[in-house]
């Protein structure tokens, strides 16, 4: 009985966790959820990431929150973004002028985003303005 209970308690969070990406069956659906402004769930982070897509081409702008906390100062770095579907879900490819990297999309819904890169997960929340 204890082994069954442990197995259920182990698998239940994994099943619940996976359901948030189940709704995203295509890159278009990922684009829809991803579009908007996101901020890292880190109290020290002052960077706001804005994703938008036009004609299947993704863009990302990065802005810093000013000292007064009211305005965004756009940074010059603006990579392109590509959504990649693979057997295990989706990945996001960030294409900068001199480098490219890929992050695995671990979790995505209308208010939360979790990306995994080099074994490290980073959580973001969506800003609504």
CATH architecture identity: Beta Barrel
Could you name the CATH class? Mainly Beta
* Averaged pLDDT: 81
CATH fold descriptor = Lipocalin
- Please tell me the total number of domains: 1
Largest sheet: 8 strands, antiparallel, barrel
Unreliable parts: 2-8, 11-20
Number of strands: 9
Radius of gyration: 17 Å
Globular, elongated, flat, extended or rod-shaped: what is the shape? globular
Strand order of the largest sheet: 1-2-3-5-6-7-8-9
% residues in beta strands? over 45%
* Structural class determined from secondary elements: alpha+beta
Mind telling me the CATH superfamily name? Answer: Calycin beta-barrel core domain
Give the N-to-C terminal Cα separation. 50 Å
Order of helices and strands: HHEEEEEEEEE
- State the share of residues found in helices, binned by percent: 10-25%
Tally of helical segments: 2
Can you tell me about this structure?
With 129 residues, this protein is of the alpha+beta class. It has one domain: Calycin beta-barrel core domain (Lipocalin, Beta Barrel), CATH 2.40.128.20. 22% of the residues lie in helices and 48% in strands. The chain has helices spanning 2-22, 27-34; strands at 36-40, 47-54, 57-65, 72-74, 80-86, 89-95, 100-108, 112-117, 120-127. It has an eight-stranded antiparallel β-barrel with strand order 1-2-3-5-6-7-8-9. The radius of gyration is 17 Å and the shape is globular. The N and C termini lie far apart (50 Å). Residues 2-8 and 11-20 have low confidence and may be disordered.
């Amino acid at each position: 009985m204890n082994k069954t209970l442990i197995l259920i308690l182990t698998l239940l969070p994994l099943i619940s966790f996976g359901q948030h990406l189940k709704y995203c069956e295509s890159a278009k659906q990922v684009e829809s959820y991803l579009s908007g402004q996101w901020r890292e769930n880190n109290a020290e982070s002052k960077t706001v990431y804005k994703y938008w897509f036009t004609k299947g081409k993704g863009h990302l702008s990065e802005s810093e929150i000013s000292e007064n906390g009211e305005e965004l100062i756009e940074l010059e770095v603006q990579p392109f973004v590509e959504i990649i579907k693979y057997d295990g879900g989706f990945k996001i490819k960030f294409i900068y002028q001199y480098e490219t990297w890929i992050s695995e999309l671990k979790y995505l819904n209308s208010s939360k985003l979790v990306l995994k890169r080099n074994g490290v997960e980073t959580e973001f929340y969506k800003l609504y303005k």
